[in-house]
Amino acid sequence: MKCFVHQDADAVGTCRACNKGICPACVKDLGHSICCNHGPCETKARTLDSQVAQSGVVLAAQRRNRFLAPLFFIMAGALFIAFSGGGKGSWFGFGHAFGLGFIVFGIILGAASHRYAKELERKG
Predict the structure, then answer these.
(1) pLDDT 10s digits, 38-84
(2) How many helices, marked H, and strands, marked E, lie in the chain?
C-alpha cells in the first residue's frame, strides 16, 4: 500500500480517522493509534479512541451490575405478594398476580443477562 499523500512512498499504516494509507512523513503517533498529521484526522482519531475507552468502562459496569435489575424485579414482586391482602375470601388477587409477573420477569431478565455476559466473555 502506498501513502495517500506521497504516492511514491510505502505506507506504514492506516489513519485511525480516515483509513487512508500514511507514510512515515505523514504519520502522527497518538500512543495507542496513528493518524494523519494534517487535517482534522487527529481530533477525530482522539474522539474515536475516547469513545472506545468509554464503551469499555460501560461494558465493565454492565458486567458488574447485571444482576441488579433482575434482583430489583424479584424483590418488588415478593413485596407485592407479601403486602397484597387479596380479595374477600380469595387467596390470589391482583397484587399476587402483579407480584408473580414481576418475579417471572426478573427471572427471565436475569437469565438473559447471564447468557449475554457469558457470550461477551467467550468473544472477549
Answers:
(1) 778 888 988 888 888 888 888 777 777 788 899 999 999 999 888 88
(2) 3, 4
